[in-house]
Amino acid sequence: MADKPVILTVDDDPAVLQSISRDLRSHYGDRFRIVRADSGDKALEVTEQLKLRGDTVALFLADQRMPGMSGVEFLEKGSEIFPKAKRALLTAYADTNAAISAINEAHLDYYLLKPWDPPEEKLYPVLDDLIQDWKAGFKPEFKGVKVISDRWSPLSHDLRDFLSRNQIPYRWLDIETDSDAQKLVEYADSDKSSDCLPLVITGDGSKLVRPTVTDLAQQVGLQTEAAKPFYDLVIIGGGPAGLAAAVYGASEGLRTVLIEREAPGGQAGTSSRIENYLGFPVGLSGDDLARRAVTQAKRFGVEILTPQSATGLRIENDYRIITLSDGKEISCHALILALGVSWRLLKVPGVDKFTGAGVYYGAAKTEAPACKGEEVYVVGGANSAGQAAMYFSQYARKVNMLVRGESLVKSMSQYLIDQIDGTENIEVMPFHSVKEAQGGDRLEKILVEDSQTGEIKELPTNYLFIFIGATPSTDWLEDTVQRDERGFLCTGPDIEAERGWPLERDRFLLETDVPGIFAVGDVRHGSVKRVASGVGEGSICVQFVHRHLANV
Predict the structure, then answer these.
(1) CB 153, CB 180: distance < 8 Å
(2) Residue ranges of domains in the chain, CATH in brackets
């Protein structure tokens, strides 16, 4: 098993190496993985690979006299990679003085004489003591994905945000401050230049240099391609509405696939705390809700493609054909558009330049730990901004909320206003708006205007988080289905009368102007922007899907 701690033995004599490996495996094989190498150089290479994979070495056992690299030399180098590992030297009688000197000078833990027969008397008691000492201070190595980069890399932020939102355990290592990060870059045979960063090392030791999100998704085992060309129901969008539709559709026997461009949960999945969702009196995080929903959907057999997006839609008789971002197509009889919305961009100088390098949309869960001791600014006055501010307050020295209006009352739930008022390190700044972001290779300060006085304030900060509303991502639909002037999808009674209807039956409540194509959640014109309403619409919509399919 790869999860077992490792005992690494090194000897250039094949017969001795086989013999010591056999004895080690006989006594320790049920608790440890026995790894062997026939030279110091090969052993060092193996040790580096073990480190990359997140394995742990408990004990090094090396022969002293080997060509190229001696046993002592290897043990010294090996301890730099695994400093907690115990180090024992295997030597002949003639080398005992060298062994004793090595113990004194190189601080080895023990030396053993050849031959070690019988191992029950001359080998196991010594190693048992060493391993027992090692166990006393043992802390398992992290086995998940490692992202190595500098603090202000936009690509690193995208990768970390993707992993976080898709519930994939990872560890971020700052190349500028973390010695482990620098060593892992060396072990991965990558140079230390910025050209090789971010470097991603997966749990099996695979190395990805500056990967795309899709590259990373495929490497960690996420499904990005559909298994079938046709489905009863295709759902585009994996927010609360889309996930609810997927659960109800699959549980009622429909062959269902869900397509999500970023991560299941949608915009709600980025929320640090949802406190008004029915049935959760102490609240729950957006990613926790998404995780529960994904687990439930998969249990019913839903295929979830992520990251994947739709780029085109056409109608051929009873078939709705969706073109995906990779150029492939899937078809269905019923399509639910649960596209959700994207963060509205702040159009002021400098913001685009520093996006991902101090300026962020959403991303509270990803970036908050890095804000420890910092002063951060949150732009926005709705619930999403308030939830983010509360979350940041657990890490940041101070959180400043920049609000264009006179207060939070018109745009934020009262429970959240009360929490903000009761949090000492949150300050609400009404009538303030960002006019410019400035810095070198990262955000260093913002210019903020007080609309009452006209005063422009220069405020130093490395973190600006933007929550100023959202817009639908529906341009790819073109004129296939009716949209309102802002791009939201029209359904049921909101559809213009002049848009024809080819069927004898009436249009269903959540149906667009194209039969069999439905819209639910935040992307729908006139929707209530709440998680519970999205879940409700997704659930109800499946009943309309069944009624449509009954006549196909």
Answers:
(1) no
(2) 6-136 (3.40.50.2300), 145-219 (3.40.30.10), 230-335+473-549 (3.50.50.60), 351-466 (3.50.50.60)
